[in-house]
Design brief:
Number of domains: 3
Largest sheet: 5 strands, mixed
Structural class: alpha/beta
Number of helices: 17
Shape: extended
Strand content: 15-25%
Distance between the termini: 39 Å
C-alpha cells in the first residue's frame, strides 16, 4: 500500500483547528491508499498510536511507500529519523516528503536524506566533545562531584557532613552523616565482614521493613546499604581523602577497573586513614577467596533460585546436624539437614526468620515441573500443522515458471540453483521435525516422577533446575510459588 502519515501537535491544533484537515487533503491528492493521523508532539512520536500502527504495517511488509507533507511531520528528532529510515530501508519502503522534495526511491532523494543524517551525526559528535571538554575543565579545577554518604559539597569541595541527621530514641543522641559513616567503618573493622557489619548496624539504628501500597515491602533507605552498595561505598577513594574521576567512564552503571581511575590525592579531610584502607582491602580480598560475598559458586540444586516472599531478596543456604550429640556419643554418621533463609534476616532488615528445608523446595520444584510437563505433553499430542515457509513456496513457484520455458543453458543453470536451494530448505525442515521429536521425548521424561527419583544424578538435577526454573518464592516456612522458564 501507499500510506500517508499526518501529524499535528496539540498546540498546532489549538491555534489552527483546520491544520490536520489541510494536511490530509494534500496527502489524499497524492493518490494514497490510506491516511494515518496523530495529534501528538513530534518528540514523542514513538509513543503515538498512529506512528506505532504505521511502523507495524511496515514490519509486516504491507507498505511500499510513505508520504508526508514535511519530514518534521514524521518526527522532530534527528536520531529518531535515522532509526526510522533504517527500518524503512530494511523493509524496502520509500519515503516521500512533499515540501522537502525528498523521494528515497530516487538517487537524489537518498542523497538529500543522507546529508541530513550527516548533519545530525556531526551535531551528536559536537555534543560529545562539549561534554568531554566540560568534564576536563572540572577535573582541572579539582571540582568535587557526587559526594558519597558522609560528605557534602561545599564550594566545589568535599567536606564532612557534620550537621545533625537523626536522633536515636534509645539515648536521645544526635548523629550526623559523618558520625554514622564512621560507625559503619569501625563496625566493619571489628566484624571483618560486610553482612555481619550490616547485622550489627541495622538494629542499632532501628532499620526495619515496612509495607507500601505502591511499592510493596521494602526497607527505609535513609542509611541502609545493600551488601554490594556497602562494598562500593567502603572502597570509594573519596572516603580516604582523595578526589576520584573516571570511575564510570563507559557511561553505564558498571564500574571501570580501579587501575584506570584518575585519583587526585589528599584534597579533603578523610574518613578512613591509609592504614585502615589497606586493612579493609585485605579483609575484602580474603573474604572473596573464602567464597564469601560475591561468590558465583553454586553449591546446591536450587542455588541462586530461592527468593523471599516478603522482601523479594535472595535466600541463603543454611545447614544443621539433626543428630549431633547422638553421633558424637555413639560414633554414627551425622544427618545433615539443609535449609534456605532470607539473607536480610541475617542483618535484621526482613522479618522472615522461618527457614524452608532444601528437600521441601526440591519437591515443590519437581511437582511444578511435572505439572508443566503434563500440560506440554498434551499440547504435543495435538500439534498444529506447520505451514510451508513462504520462501520455499516462492522457490517452487519460480521453478515451475522456469520449467514452462523453452530449453536454454542459462535457464537450466538457474533451475539447478533453485533445486539446490529447495533441497537445503527441506533438509532444515527435517532437522526441525527431529528436534521437535527429541523435545517431545524430554517432555515425556520430565512428566515421569520416577525419572526425578532414580534417573538423575545430583549434578544433572541441578543443571535441569537452573535451565527450567526462574525463581522459587518462600515465605512463612513454606514454598509460596515456583516460577518456571517454560
Amino acid at each position: 500500500m501507499k500510506i500517508a502519515y499526518a501529524r499535528v501537535s496539540s498546540r498546532e491544533q489549538s491555534e489552527n483547528s483546520h491544520a490536520l484537515e489541510q494536511q490530509i487533503a494534500r496527502l489524499e491528492s497524492s493518490q494514497v491508499d490510506r491516511v494515518i493521523q496523530d495529534v501528538e508532539s513530534g518528540s514523542k512520536n514513538s509513543k503515538s498510536p498512529g506512528f506505532r500502527e504505521l511502523m507495524d504495517l511496515v514490519k509486516e511488509g504491507k507498505v511500499a511507500e510513505i508520504v508526508v507533507t514535511r519530514l518534521d511531520r514524521l518526527t522532530r528528532s534527528l536520531s529518531s529519523l535515522q532509526k526510522t529510515m533504517e527500518i524503512l530501508k530494511a523493509h524496502g519502503v520509500a519515503l516521500v516528503s512533499l515540501d522537502d522534495s525528498i523521494d528515497t526511491s530516487t538517487a537524489a532523494g537518498v542523497f538529500h536524506l543522507n546529508m541530513l543524517g550527516a548533519l545530525a551525526e556531526m551535531e551528536v559528535g559536537r555534543l560529545s566533545e562539549r561534554v568531554r571538554h566540560g568534564w576536563s575543565h572540572l577535573r582541572d579545577r579539582r571540582v568535587a562531584m557526587n559526594p558519597p554518604f558522609g560528605y557534602r559539597k561545599e564550594n566545589d569541595q568535599h567536606v564532612l557532613d557534620t550537621t545533625p541527621f537523626l536522633c536515636l530514641i534509645s539515648d536521645r543522641s544526635e548523629w550526623s552523616r559523618a558520625k554514622i559513616s564512621r560507625y559503619y567503618i569501625d563496625t566493619f573493622l571489628q566484624e571483618r565482614s560486610i553482612r555481619l557489619t550490616l547485622r550489627v548496624v541495622y538494629p542499632h539504628f532501628g532499620i526495619q521493613v515496612y509495607r507500601s501500597r505502591r511499592r510493596g515491602p521494602h526497607a527505609t533507605r535513609l542509611i541502609r546499604f545493600s551488601p554490594s552498595a556497602f562494598n562500593e561505598w567502603l572502597t570509594n577513594p573519596v572516603l580516604q581523602g582523595h578526589l576520584s574521576y573516571r570511575r564510570n567512564a563507559s557511561g553505564n552503571r558498571k564500574r571501570e577497573d580501579p587501575k584506570t581511575w584518575q585519583i587526585i590525592p589528599n584534597t579533603h579531610e578523610p574518613l578512613i586513614t591509609a592504614e585502615e584502607a589497606a586493612m579493609i582491602k585485605q579483609i575484602l580480598s580474603r573474604n572473596r577467596q573464602a567464597k564469601g560475598f560475591g561468590s558465583p559458586k553454586r553449591r546446591h540444586s536450587v542455588s541462586g533460585l530461592v527468593f523471599c516472599g516478603e522482601c523479594r531478596s535472595a535466600c541463603y543456604h543454611q545447614s544443621g546436624c539433626q543428630n549431633y550429640a547422638r553421633s558424637k556419643r555413639l560414633g554414627i554418621p551425622q544427618i545433615i539437614r539443609r535449609y534456605y533463609q532470607c539473607k536480610n534476616w541475617r542483618s535484621r532488615a526482613c522479618p522472615q526468620k522461618a527457614m524452608v528445608s532444601l528437600d521441601i523446595i526440591e519437591e515443590a520444584v519437581i511437582a511444578a515441573l511435572i505439572s508443566r510437563a503434563e500440560d506440554l505433553a498434551k499440547m504435543a499430542d495435538t500439534p498444529a500443522p506447520t505451514p510451508e515457509p513462504l520462501a520455499l513456496r516462492e522457490l517452487r513457484s519460480q521453478l515451475a515458471d522456469l520449467n514452462r520455458m523453452a530449453y536454454n543453458p542459462a535457464i537450466e543453470n538457474a533451475k539447478a540453483q533453485i533445486k539446490n536451494q529447495i533441497a537445503g530448505m527441506e533438509l532444515d525442515l527435517t532437522h526441525t521435525t527431529q528436534e521437535s521429536s527429541r523435545l517431545g521425548q524430554l517432555i515425556s521424561a520430565l512428566a515421569d516422577p520416577d525419572f526425578w527419583k532414580e534417573g538423575l544424578e545430583p549434578n544433572e538435577k541441578s543443571q535441569l533446575f537452573q535451565d527450567l526454573v526462574s525463581q522459587v518464592i518462600i515465605k512463612d516456612g513454606a514454598v509460596l510459588e515456583v516460577k518456571l522458564k517454560v
